[in-house]
Amino acid sequence: MRLKTFTAGNVTEGLAQIRAVLGDEAVIVATQEDEAGGVRITAAVEGAEAAPPATAASGPTPVVDIVYQGFRRHGVPAVIGEALLELVGSFETGDPVTALAAALRQTFRFKPLEKRCPRQAKMLIGPPGAGKTLALAKLAARALTAGQRMALFTTDSARAGGDARLASLAAALGQTAMTVEHPRTLADGLRGVEGMDWLLVDSAGANHLDVEEMGALGRYLLCADIEPILVVPAGIDPVEAGDIGMVFAELGASRVILTRLDLTRRLGSIFAAAHAAKLAFAEIGTGARVKDGLIPADATALARFLLPGRPAALQKTGT
């Protein structure tokens, strides 16, 4: 791959320069206005000899190149990648993780779950197979480790074995889970518990393309004071992830728990979901066991997942 930066009076002139030098196969990596009112455009083309070491005046820094390669490997959507690369190139650091983390902080929101939340229930929602039940069990285990009390509920009563999954995980933690089959039952159950640090609700997987399923989920969310938290697995199509994020955000989801980051080499979808629906990153899940836990989401952690040398946590497999 060859990277080269061009300066021009406007974008049209810059694109003409790029086509003349790199050809029609060039890909725009970043666009930035300069102090003189013109533009600086960084472009890349495959199959060419590596460019000479870049300088501030002649081309992108090695940090930008490393981050760009990470984005290519993970399939980060172009609209997101270009904005992040422009920020990465503006920081005076030789550490790609530091630069990317700073860019992520300026682009996305990070809002891990609270230390405790005794009044508002948290319901994990998302498509089938996203890892909601295991993520809920991991939250419960974390609360128990902190000496906290919780009440567990599940609305997954229609799917064969749906409620049994949470019941089994809860039993392993010395807890019980109440299965509810109607929003009124959930509302009554939430009102009937006192002195809890957490009210955690598992939900049946909902097809974001099915109006009836989404409507049924919405009725549960309206029955009481409940925050819906979207659960999105890594590795799905980025465009589909964006659609999923936007549909569930319409039900009130403003945060997302990321799961199965250890089961894929392509993490672009998690950024697509958060970007499309303006979701805050809440937690990161790896590992198929409850004891593997969840990691509070932060920019540095996500930067490390994207760049070479993946975190040791990825030796595990699961949510």
Protein described:
This protein has 319 residues and is α/β, with parallel strands linked by helices. The protein contains 11 helices and 11 strands. A hairpin with a 5-residue loop joins strand 2 and strand 3. Helix 3 packs across helix 4, helix 5 runs parallel beside helix 6 and helix 9 runs parallel beside helix 10. The longest helix is centred in the middle third of the chain and has 14 residues. The relative contact order is 0.14. The C terminus is likely disordered.
Describe the strand arrangement of the main beta sheet, using strand numbers: 6-5-7-4-8-9-10-11
Assembly form of the protein: single chain
Task: Return the CATH topology of the largest domain.
Answer: Rossmann fold
- The topology string of helices and strands comes to EHEEHHHEHEHEHEHEHEHEEH
Mean pLDDT: 87
Shape descriptor reads elongated
Number of helical segments with 4 or more residues: 11
How many domains make up the coordinates?
A: 2
CATH class of the largest domain: Alpha Beta
| Cα gyration radius (Å) | 23 Å
| CATH superfamily annotation of the largest domain | P-loop containing nucleotide triphosphate hydrolases
* First and last CA, distance: 34 Å
Low-confidence stretches: 48-58, 312-317
Q: Beta-strand percentage?
A: 15-25%
In terms of structural class, how would the helical and strand content be classed? alpha/beta
The share of residues in helices is 25-40%
Compute the number of strand runs.
Answer: 11
